[in-house]
Design a protein that fits this description.
This is Beta-lactamase. The chain is an alpha+beta fold. The chain folds into 5 domains: 26-69 and 94-124, Dodecin subunit-like; 132-213, Serine Threonine Protein Phosphatase 5, Tetratricopeptide repeat, CATH 1.25.40; 229-294, Tetratricopeptide repeat domain (Serine Threonine Protein Phosphatase 5, Tetratricopeptide repeat, Alpha Horseshoe), CATH 1.25.40; 364-428; 457-641, Porin, CATH 2.40.160. Helix content is 45%, strand content 23%. The strands form 4 sheets. The chain has an 8-stranded antiparallel beta barrel. A 3-stranded antiparallel beta sheet has the order 1-5-4. A two-stranded antiparallel ribbon has the order 2-3. The radius of gyration is 54 Å and the shape is rod-shaped. It starts with 5 loop residues before the first helix and ends with a strand.
């Protein structure tokens, strides 16, 4: 059974419950987003008071406008000689001399919400426009005052980071001022410090502090540094709660695809997409929301606002290379991937490399998998790219399967790799079970056919012998002397494998020629004077079989033999058929030498022999009836067998 982590389910459930139970709370207070232009929302606990909610709203407004208007700074010195700013100055400087008006307020049992809008006609000090600080010295003075917001330190750090106001770029100085701003409580300072720190450990500490302080974008950045997919998932959900649009979009994809040990939940996914879209009306959350609703016109509109994902989807849907190139120029992993599929092979690898690099910190890693596919004979490169496509939150399952086939130890995505491992183990268990059944069936077959297996060897033989027979045909002649004939047999045998003792059966067919009467005996029958003197010779076709046992090189067997005439040489053949039973022994050393005795029941024609004085002058028997007699034959033979 798949193990389900209950944490994200509870979070998602709570999100839905919170929305459901807050129907009386204004939408702007629920979402922290207002629809009016140049608008911001701030909130604070009742204990913190309305001024704290206002200060936070002003801070959000300041960041959204991107302004850098500074107020005059009047120093006050207390009895100890320490320079401090009075409460009016603190509020004055934190508001950055922004004019504003309060649009709405809301208060429940625990919190205060204020919605304000920028109004340049309502400055705190109604005088001439306060110019920007034109010297770094002013910022440095403000940064030194620990009673003020750390915003000034962060502003100074940004100037060093970007090389503004005549300063040379200096990342070390930038980090110094970001760090101080972070320590003074300005979460943006923690975020910026984490982004430029060359220590992954320190970056994680900075992001964690900012994320815990409620800065959603810091939670997103922290998720990129986590190894465990469940930690990534939880940070994205937390980032969405901190009003980071991209975190909400990614959280929606997690629930849409059923990733990171959560059940697929399309409804909850759309809830996250909607919140992301509220936070950034031109962001990826809107693209994913319209894509789930198959609203291609809205996606086209987002592409017109330079949303890279929207251009990639629209370009692929309409086979529009221009839109795919636009998406790639906007650094879309999806755009580079679609462009690689549309371009010729000479550019494919370069485009896939860009798609892979961009997608690792995003939600698309198919480019990494296809890069691995291109290295058909290089398993090292395959493992490198399949690992990138597999060991991440937004993994490609097919990449994990390919990676597992090459090197299971490199498949480290706990969710999918464990699934693949179980599938492989199940397949192996089924294969083992099948092999076991086949072995048992084979063993059973061997037991059942053990006796038959002794008859499983097939051979062939040919034998040539000299039968000795004293014909006994009383209705034809009174007595006869012994005659020597010729016999040739060919056949095959089925014999056991045990060379010491095994049964065998050997059917055969052959040709036998015997002399029934010599010249003297023919004369007694009043044969014509011109008879050629060869006697009465009969050719017969015979079939039969040996059935016996083999004992080493010695064989003993019974014989059944049946003969029918096929020709006579000089006169009509008196034999109708012969059926014999007997026995034999032989020595088989490849060359066969043996002796046989057979007793035949002979059916023959008798009666008066009539002389023919016309034609060829032969004898013609009276075939009006047949007679029976016993005839014994002895034969020695020689042959070969395989």
């Amino acid at each position: 059974m798949k193990k389900i982590n209950i944490i994200p389910l509870v979070m998602g459930f709570c999100l839905c419950i919170n929305i459901a139970l807050s129907s009386d709370k204004p939408q702007w207070a629920q979402s922290g987003v207002c629809q009016e232009p140049d608008c911001a929302v701030g909130e604070a606990s009742l204990k913190e008071g309305e001024m704290s909610a206002l200060a936070r709203a002003l801070k959000e407004l300041r960041l959204s406008l991107g302004v850098n208007i500074q107020a005059e700074y009047n120093e006050n010195t207390d009895n100890s000689g320490e320079t401090k700013a009075d409460s009016h100055l603190k509020l004055y400087t934190s508001m950055q001399n922004l004019g504003y008006k309060i649009l709405d307020k809301y208060q429940d049992n625990s919190r205060i919400y204020i919605k304000i809008q920028y109004d340049p006609n309502k400055k705190v000090i109604q005088n001439e426009v306060i110019p920007e600080f034109d010297t770094i010295k002013s910022l440095e003075k403000l940064c030194k005052d620990n009673q003020l917001d750390g915003y000034y330190c962060v502003s100074l750090g940004r100037k060093y980071q970007n090389g503004e106001n005549g300063l040379a770029k200096n990342i070390d100085f930038a980090l110094k001022y970001f760090d101080k701003g972070c320590k003074m409580g300005t979460l943006e300072g923690c975020l910026f410090a984490g982004k430029i720190s060359d220590s992954a450990r320190k970056s994680k500490e900075y992001f964690t502090k900012a994320c815990d302080g409620g800065l959603g974008s810091a939670c997103f950045e922290q998720s990129l540094l986590e190894d465990e997919i469940t930690d990534k998932r939880d940070l994205l959900i937390k980032g969405c709660s901190g009003k980071d649009a991209l975190s909400c979009a990614f959280a929606g994809e997690i629930y849409q695809k059923g990733l990171a040990h959560v059940q697929t939940n399309t409804s909850l996914a759309n809830t996250y997409y909607s919140k992301s879209c509220l936070l950034d009306k031109n962001g990826d959350g809107c693209v994913l929301l319209w894509q789930s609703q198959q609203d291609w016109q809205e996606i086209q509109k987002l592409c017109d606002t330079n949303n890279a994902k929207a251009c990639a989807i629209t370009g692929d849907e309409n086979n529009n290379i221009d839109l795919l190139e636009k998406s790639a120029m906007l650094d879309s992993a999806l755009g580079y991937y679609f462009l690689a599929r549309a371009k010729d092979s000479t550019q494919k690898m370069m485009l896939l490399e860009k798609s892979c690099a961009l997608g690792l910190n995003g939600d698309f890693t198919k480019g990494c998998e296809e890069l691995g596919d291109m290295y058909q004979t290089d398993d090292v490169q395959k493992v490198q790219y399949y690992s990138k496509a597999c060991n991440t939150l937004f993994y490609e399952e097919s990449a994990c399967e390919k990676l597992y086939e090459i090197d299971p130890s490199q498949c480290q995505n706990e969710e999918i790799c464990l699934k693949i491992k179980k599938q492989k183990e199940l397949q192996q268990a089924q294969a083992n079970e099948q092999a076991k059944r086949e072995q048992e069936e084979l063993r059973s077959y061997k037991v059942k056919t053990k006796s038959h297996s002794q008859l499983s060897r097939i051979g062939a033989f040919i034998e040539m012998g000299m039968p000795v027979l004293r014909p006994n045909l009383p209705q034809l002649m009174k007595e006869s002397s012994s005659k020597v004939g010729f016999n040739l047999k060919v056949g095959f045998e089925i014999r056991g494998k045990n060379p010491k003792f095994s049964p065998f059966v050997a059917p055969y067919m052959g040709y036998t020629r015997i002399t029934l009467m010599d010249d003297d005996e023919l004369e007694e029958l009043d044969a014509p004077y011109y008879y050629n003197g060869d006697g009465m010779n009969v050719g017969m076709f015979n079939v039969g079989s040996y059935i016996g046992v083999r004992m080493g090189t010695l064989r003993a067997y019974g014989i059944i033999d049946y003969l029918v005439p096929v020709s006579s040489l000089s006169i009509d053949n008196p034999i109708d058929n012969m059926l014999g039973y007997g026995f034999g022994v032989m020595l088989d050393i490849g060359l066969r030498i043996g002796f046989q005795y057979i007793s035949y029941d002979v059916s023959y024609y008798g009666g008066r022999v009539r002389r023919e004085w016309y034609g060829d002058g032969g004898f013609e028997l009276d075939r009006s009836q047949t007679y029976k007699s016993k005839n014994n034959a002895f034969m020695v033979f020689i042959g070969i067998g395989i």
